[in-house]
Amino acid sequence: MRGMSNKNGGYLNDLEHLKQSIIDILTTPIGSRVICRDYGSSLFQLTDQPINRDLFPKIYAAVADAIDKWEPRFKLEKITINSIQEGHITLSLIGLYRITQQKISLEDLAI
Questions:
Q1: What is the pTM of this model?
Q2: Are 100 and 47 in contact (CB under 8 A)?
Q3: How many other β-carbons are positioned within 10 Å of the β-carbon of residue 55?
Q4: 8 or 83: whose pLDDT is higher?
Q5: Other beta carbons within 10 Å of 83
Q6: Who contacts 39 (Cβ-Cβ below 8 Å, separation ≥6)?
């Protein structure tokens, strides 16, 4: 499956399109799309919370819930939080790419 880049309109290969899709899901606040109000993730609500150990499980849950609901091509197995700064989270994801049944890693997703 080839997709289209949301940056320049060019073609994306399968994994690039999957990565773009996951970033779109995770960066879209729930309730912000008029036609599909439940699309997106609750990460937006977490980006300005105090950075402490209570925040990490909330991030994991928000990412896992959103990907499970909105990205059927990817079965999430592991989330790694690479960095957290006020307003920004960088993640790496490992999971099964269901199209080819291969385990893949999506590195440094900036949210």
A1: 0.88
A2: no
A3: 16
A4: 83
A5: 10
A6: 25, 28, 30, 33, 70
* Identity of residue 109: L
The three-state DSSP-derived secondary structure of the chain is CCEECCCCCCEECHHHHHHHHHHHHHHCECCCCCCCCCCCECHHHHCCCCCCCCHHHHHHHHHHHHHHHHCCCEEEEEEEEEEEECCEEEEEEEEEECCCCEEEEEEEEEC
Residue range 29-62, pLDDT digits in tens: 999 988 999 999 998 888 778 888 899 999 999 9
Q: Beta partners for 93?
A: 79, 106
CA-nearest of 89, 92, 87 to 104 is: 92
In sequence order, the β-bridge partners of residue 96 are 75, 103
